[in-house]
């Protein structure tokens, strides 16, 4: 399992492998053909309420992770879909639109999926 992260505004590359947009909203100012997304799974993103509450405030990061973890437990179908793609594609890049590289849903989602993948291995 090789999961990478990349900002939507950074140019795509061959090393990205299978590119999955993990935001509910399309990144502003980017044409669909320029983003080169293989799969867009809006359902995996945090709820609008959680996204608005968090607003990429690093002071809320710890609580955001707890709340997003709870939401992901309720989104089993979306988690299974993205997990299937990860298992089938080798390298997968989770693409996100946030300007904040350390405190965003893709960062937590990567950690969540890696943890889930390790549990499935044993």
Q: Tell me about the largest β-sheet.
A: 4 strands, parallel
Shape: globular
Give the overall average pLDDT.
92
Look at the helices and sheets and give the structural class: alpha/beta
Please report the distance between the alpha carbons of the first and last residues. Answer: 14 Å
* Residue fraction in strands: 5-15%
Number of helices: 5
Taking all Cα atoms into account, the compactness measure Rg is 14 Å
Q: How many structural domains are formed by the residues?
A: 1
Unreliable stretches covering 5 or more consecutive residues: none
Q: Return the string of H and E elements.
A: EEHEHHHEH
How many E strands?
A: 4
Helical percentage: 40-55%
Biggest sheet: strands side by side, in what order? 1-4-2-3
Pfam families: DUF488-N3i (PF22752)
InterPro entries: YeaO-like (IPR052552)
Organism: Candidatus Criblamydia sequanensis CRIB-18
Protein name: Uroporphyrin-III C-methyltransferase
Secondary structure topology:
Layout: E1 2-7, E2 18-21, H1 32-35, E3 39-40, H2 48-54, H3 61-74, H4 76-89, E4 91-96, H5 105-121
Parallel strand pairs: 1-4, 2-3, 2-4
Organism: Candidatus Criblamydia sequanensis CRIB-18
Pfam families: DUF488-N3i
InterPro entries: YeaO-like (IPR052552)
